[in-house]
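Narrative of accomplishments. A recurring question from our advisory board has been how the design workflow behaves on a single, concrete structure rather than in aggregate. To address it, we present the structure tokens for one chain from the evaluation set, followed by the sequence designed for it. No filtering or post-editing was applied between the two.
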């Protein structure tokens, strides 16, 4: 009985076991593998590459890493066709489709990677992170980030910004940034602020080339790089690594990226019309790859015309611009790229920051200019700008073999700002023939002003990629020639005075050699260290003037002098991959900014001791996480930097001026950024910052600092950004809100100020004029014909800026000098531009695709 019972039990178990074995055998027979190598174009294996296998039927994704030699073997994959994607740090994504997998025929594939750029990194992460939220995020961080970075992608620029936007508008929604244009979106010279850094304390580059003014490293948003030329923005909120070159990555780098070139021909013509009689006509041509069997050539052209009356009364402007980008591939290892852009800008903006409180009360919220009273400085006919600019570069990349890569980019650009503006005669006297006559003791009440420069430069780098990491070395060099003057003039006759307020010419040489090594300590840990030497020299020629700047120079026509500045700037950082979709980083970096050319703008141009460059020491740590339906980025920063210098009489030489540091500032805070994929193309984007930026030196030059522990101007204690987007096939919808918390503007003491027994007079008073928080909400709606259609990229586009017509004060310059701020009708205001609506229609034409 017992034996029979045992047999009854064993027999079914045996049958089940045989069935399981049979099923396993069948599964094994229905699966296969993909093996291969990931190498550069010279055949050198690339270690620790990322390889993704995507089933073309089910969209199932399998991800692995290659070994130290670049070899990889997939796990068992169900039979079918697969798309294989390979990527690695510093290389672009490479994709091969239709790779067949079967049990009796294991697939083999060779993946060749080309050297990549920042835009390639964005594409790689969106594809390889397996995060739907990352693919739909309007802006996001990178898992390979070694500092706090936000990438603004092409979709945001094309679908969620105004067609007349400048680059500051594209940055508006990034963490902590705010930039306000009182004349309307893209209709004035806007400046950005973040973390306590104002314009001139951070780099802005275009395709890796830094650009800026020569007297100070500031920028002009309306005269360079309109949104029609841009394909993305890489925003690094740190001084960067040793290989981050430029005059002042002191506070960070805003890296503007040109548009990618299409593989297939496309022609687009569009018209936009919006509020304030704003008209934009744009024509763009993508040639696609052409020229012989190998199709080595590609051309991208954009030409546009924009005119607007502006939100502010009679603050008109007109811009004509054209750009051309050309690429020629000698081979997969040798690529030549050229870019040329030209802008002609004409405007009649006066040389004032905005209307006064009294003018707004009398004439209205949008008041700036008037054309009925020629006795006032804001009479329209007295104020003109003419600003032509050009920007050109030639880039050459070559893979030299054995892991070596060459990247060189010579460039040139120019800026010519010829401005004429009126000034009110002293004592509030009216502008007339008597008060504006160039008579001794009476200042003519207009200004003939020029700021022009031409630059030539080159950035060359060599890199060596090995299984241990990447070594980079190179140098940025730039030469610039500048001519600047301000000459008092009669606005009624345009007759200039004999002597200027100032007139100077100077020549600048900048050198920045660098070296750094990115060490792949393990597959998860990357450590980078390096140093950069920053050298600047200026040779100045200052002409005798009317006493406003250097004076008569003892009867000499001009005086010459030189200045030289040197900084040694080390950096170190690390990135650790906790998981494939989760990284943490830490960074220490340094930056410097040299004093402006106005160091010598003193009587006799005599300066006994040159001020030293201002330094920043930055510490940051953060994390980036990319889940299937959410991306999360966060960072904490602490930055200590020396304040701008102040001028005072030199006690050892009565006719000279000495410059001393005004104390240190410290910025610290937290920044967070996230995107959540909700449902079928619907996503929620959010960011927020909390921090402080204050003066931290209790004493300066041995005396008490009257501004100790006070806030730096234009540094809100908090900011928030929120966006809801819908992106599905032909339809794009987005609404974005930016809230900027309360902050302070500076003032100037009108009398004596006593702090702890020390008397001060005529000083800059920080934390002086309060600015309340304000909100800005924008809404966008687009219908676009996507790829595959003959009318590819045809689009209907609606843009609403400041939807709720918020009326906020964004800046305030006190009209009365006093130790304590009291609102006054003479206060000059910066204001939010009122609601604007723009409608655009674009017709795109492309050949049908096979």
């Amino acid at each position: 009985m017992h034996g029979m019972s045992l047999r009854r039990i064993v027999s079914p178990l045996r049958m089940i076991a045989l069935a399981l074995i049979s099923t396993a055998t069948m599964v094994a027979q229905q699966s296969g593998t993909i093996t291969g190598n990931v190498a550069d174009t010279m055949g050198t294996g690339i270690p620790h590459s990322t390889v993704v296998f995507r089933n073309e039927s089910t969209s199932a994704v399998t991800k692995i890493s290659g070994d130290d030699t670049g070899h990889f073997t997939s796990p068992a994959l169900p039979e079918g066709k697969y798309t294989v994607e390979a990527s690695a740090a510093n290389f672009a994504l490479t994709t091969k489709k239709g790779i067949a997998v079967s049990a009796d025929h294991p697939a083999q594939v060779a993946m060749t990677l080309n050297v990549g750029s920042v835009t390639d990194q964005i594409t790689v992460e969106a594809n390889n992170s397996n995060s739907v939220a990352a693919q739909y995020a309007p802006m996001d961080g990178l898992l390979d980030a070694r500092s706090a970075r936000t990438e603004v992608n092409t979709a945001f620029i094309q679908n969620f910004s105004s067609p007349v936007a400048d680059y500051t508008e594209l940055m508006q929604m990034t963490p902590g940034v705010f930039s306000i244009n009182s004349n309307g979106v893209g209709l004035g010279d806007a400046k950005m602020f973040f973390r306590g850094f104002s314009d001139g304390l951070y780099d802005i580059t275009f395709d890796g080339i830094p650009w800026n003014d020569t007297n100070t490293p500031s920028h002009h948003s309306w005269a360079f790089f309109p949104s029609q030329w841009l394909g993305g923005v890489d925003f690094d909120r740190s001084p960067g690594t040793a290989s981050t070159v430029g005059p002042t990555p002191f506070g960070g780098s805003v890296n503007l990226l040109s548009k990618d070139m299409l593989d297939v021909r496309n022609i687009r013509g569009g018209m936009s019309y919006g509020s304030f009689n704003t008209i934009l006509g744009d024509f763009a041509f993508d040639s696609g790859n052409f020229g012989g069997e190998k199709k080595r050539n590609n051309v991208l052209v954009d030409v546009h015309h924009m005119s607007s009356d502006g939100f502010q009364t009679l603050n008109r402007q007109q811009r004509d611009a054209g750009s051309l980008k050309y690429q020629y591939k000698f081979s997969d290892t040798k690529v030549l790229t050229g870019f040329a852009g030209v802008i002609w800008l004409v405007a009649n903006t006066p040389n004032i920051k905005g209307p006064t409180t009294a003018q707004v009360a009398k004439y209205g919220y949008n008041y700036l200019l008037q054309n009925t009273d020629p006795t006032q400085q804001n009479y329209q006919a007295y104020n003109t700008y003419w600003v032509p600019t050009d920007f050109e570069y030639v880039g050459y990349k070559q893979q030299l073999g054995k892991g070596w890569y060459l990247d060189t980019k010579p460039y040139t650009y120019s800026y010519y700002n010829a401005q004429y503006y009126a000034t009110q005669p002293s004592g509030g006297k009216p502008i007339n023939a008597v008060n504006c006559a160039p008579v001794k003791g009476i200042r003519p009440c207009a200004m003939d002003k020029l700021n022009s420069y031409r630059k030539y430069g080159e950035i060359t780098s060599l890199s060596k990629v090995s299984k241990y990491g990447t070594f980079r070395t190179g140098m940025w060099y730039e030469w610039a020639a500048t001519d600047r003057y301000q000459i008092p003039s009669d606005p009624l006759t345009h007759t200039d005075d004999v002597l200027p307020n100032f007139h100077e010419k100077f020549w600048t040489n900048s050198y920045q050699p660098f070296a750094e090594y990115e060490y792949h300590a393990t597959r998860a840990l990357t450590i980078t260290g390096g140093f950069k030497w920053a050298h600047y020299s200026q040779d100045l020629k200052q002409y005798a003037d009317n006493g406003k700047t250097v004076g008569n120079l003892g009867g000499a026509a001009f005086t010459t002098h030189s200045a030289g500045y040197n900084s040694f700037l080390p950096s170190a950082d690390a990135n650790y991959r906790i998981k494939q979709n989760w990284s943490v980083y830490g960074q220490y970096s340094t930056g410097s900014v040299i004093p402006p050319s106005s160091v010598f703008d003193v009587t006799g141009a005599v300066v006994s001791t040159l001020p030293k460059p201002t330094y920043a020491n930055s510490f940051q740590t953060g994390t980036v996480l990319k889940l299937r339906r959410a991306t999360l980025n966060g960072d904490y920063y602490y930055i200590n930097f020396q304040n701008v210098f102040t001028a005072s009489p030199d006690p050892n030489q009565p006719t000279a001026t000495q410059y001393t540091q005004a104390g240190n500032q410290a910025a610290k805070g937290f920044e967070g950024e996230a995107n959540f994929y909700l449902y079928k193309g619907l996503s929620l984007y959010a960011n927020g910052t909390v921090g402080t930026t204050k003066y931290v030196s209790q004493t300066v030059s041995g005396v008490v600092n009257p501004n100790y522990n006070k806030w730096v101007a234009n540094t809100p204690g908090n900011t928030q950004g929120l966006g809801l987007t819908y992106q599905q096939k032909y339809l794009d919808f987005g609404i974005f809100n930016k809230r900027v918390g309360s902050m302070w503007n500076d003032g100037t003491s009108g009398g004596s100020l006593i702090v702890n027994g020390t008397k001060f007079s005529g000083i800059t008073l920080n934390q002086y004029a309060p600015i309340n928080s304000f909100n800005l909400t924008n809404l966008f709606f687009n219908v676009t014909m996507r790829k595959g259609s003959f009318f590819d990229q045809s689009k209907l586009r609606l843009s609403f800026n400041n939807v709720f017509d918020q009326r906020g004060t964004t800046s305030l310059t006190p009209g009365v000098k006093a130790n304590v701020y009291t609102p006054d009708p003479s206060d000059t205001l910066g204001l939010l531009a009122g609601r604007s609506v723009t409608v655009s229609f674009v017709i795109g034409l492309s050949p049908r695709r096979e």
